[in-house]
Write a structure and sequence with these properties.
It is built from nine helices and no strands. By secondary structure, it is mainly alpha-helical. The protein starts with 8 loop residues before the first helix and ends with a helix.
């Protein structure tokens, strides 16, 4: 079971581009929160707002861990190592995530996938993006393809989220409708 520590130019380029792409999406989410704060934290959207943050974080962390072999024995060995670290040190930080990336990459990707599936209940296009498989190109590993597919779904969910927030801001609220009716009655 050989650990991969791919510090070659191709992986480093992918890593930097992927993190930049993810951080741009996270910045877009942050800016959306700033632009539509009342809608983002409303009962209709607050769970979706929090879920989008979870997806962004999970994909951000997973990008750092994508240089893994995918070897089943290595995944189990890293799961065991991770658990032992958790039990002996009572703490997990990035170095432990990195050292156990055969398992931790899968952990973060599963978190992202589960959160995206929750979002797909509202925005069905997210499921379509998740199920669309990227064309296999030379040098692209399964973990990178998997990450790209989930990042695409994150961006599709952001598109839908923004559209719904804009529509919610434009729609009159029940409170404003009541106020308008009471004004009409007094005239």
């Amino acid at each position: 079971m050989k650990k991969v520590d791919d510090l070659g130019p191709a992986h480093l380029e992918w890593l930097i581009q992927s993190r930049m792409r993810n951080q741009n999406a996270c910045l877009r989410l942050f800016n959306t929160f700033e632009k539509y704060p009342e809608q983002a934290k409303s009962q209709a959207f607050r769970a979706h707002s929090q879920t989008l943050v979870a997806v962004g974080f999970s994909l951000w962390r997973a990008a750092f861990l994508a240089d893994k072999t995918g070897d089943r024995e290595a995944v189990f060995a890293d799961a065991r190592t991770f658990l032992a670290k958790l039990l002996t040190d009572n703490a997990i930080n990035y170095p432990q995530d990195r050292g156990s990336r055969e398992w931790t990459f899968n952990y973060y990707m599963t978190n992202a996938n589960d959160a995206l599936l929750k979002l797909a209940d509202r925005w069905g296009n997210v499921t379509a993006v998740l199920s669309k498989h990227e064309k296999v190109t030379k040098g692209t590993t399964n973990s990178r393809r998997r990450w790209n597919r989930h990042q695409n779904a994150f961006e599709a969910a952001l598109d839908a989220y923004e559209r719904d927030l804009v529509a919610a801001q434009a729609a009159p609220t029940a409170k404003s409708k009541r106020a308008a009716r009471s004004k009409t009655k007094t005239i």
